[in-house]
Design a protein that fits this description.
Elements (H helix, E strand, L loop, with lengths): L6 H13 L4 H8 L3 H13 L1
Helix pairs in contact: 1-2
């Protein structure tokens, strides 16, 4: 499996967009990540 370039930065950017009032779907689309991937990354961060 290929490594994700700047995964943490993308996840933080999506969270910032959500906090500013955008929806999850729209925020993920803007960054170029699927919602499913974003939720998986966020879950992995909370487990560590």
């Amino acid at each position: 499996m290929a490594a994700i370039v700047d995964k943490d930065a993308k996840c933080r950017r999506i969270e910032q967009l959500i906090a500013s009032g955008k929806g999850v779907c729209e925020s993920c689309r803007e960054v170029g990540v699927s919602e499913k991937t974003f939720y998986r990354w966020r879950k992995a961060q909370s487990e560590t």
